[in-house]
From TrEMBL:
GO terms for molecular function: deaminase activity. This is Enamine deaminase RidA (YjgF/YER057c/UK114 family). Pfam families: Ribonuc_L-PSP (PF01042). GO terms for cellular component: cytosol. Belongs to the RutC family. PANTHER family: 2-IMINOBUTANOATE/2-IMINOPROPANOATE DEAMINASE RIDA (PTHR11803), PROTEIN HMF1-RELATED (PTHR11803:SF58). InterPro entries: RutC-like_sf, YjgF/YER057c/UK114. SUPFAM superfamilies: YjgF-like (SSF55298).
Length: 135
């Protein structure tokens, strides 16, 4: 994080911004973390192409890496919106999502979106992770 991305001690950007995009991977706003749309990438930020199951699990891992910067895990996720390239993949995606999300208690919406490009899936998330009290 640099000073230009910090609004306050409770409102700041998380993760490295792609210089070609007008947003950050996530933003902390108080006790919440808002995760921008994430796609299936490995730990080196390379796209993962595979089945809907593989891409679903990889996308959840991408979200997990983004929120880990704030000490959060997938169990802290309270809301996910999923954008599927093809709703015919819904059943297989849903089974993989259940496997990947673990015991999170969350709300979710899944929609078909033609703007999902070069991937089968994109997800954004809202995470509730209270800020640690100041010492």
């Amino acid at each position: 994080m640099n000073d230009s991305t910090k609004k306050s001690d409770t409102h700041y950007a998380i993760g490295k911004k792609n210089p070609n995009l007008p947003f950050h991977p996530a933003v902390r706003a108080g006790d919440y973390i808002f995760v921008s749309g994430q796609v299936p990438k490995d730990e080196n930020n390379n796209m993962i192409t595979g089945t809907i199951e593989e891409e679903t699990l990889a996308t959840l891992k991408t979200i997990e890496r983004v929120i880990a910067h704030e000490g959060a895990t997938l169990s802290d996720v309270v809301r996910i919106t999923t954008y599927l390239e093809d709703t015919r993949d819904f059943g297989r995606y849903n089974r993989a999502f259940l496997e990947g999300i673990g015991d999170a208690v969350l709300a979710r919406t899944t929609v078909e979106a033609r703007a999902v490009i070069n991937t089968k899936i994109e997800m954004d998330a809202i995470v509730y992770k209270p800020l640690a009290p100041k010492a």
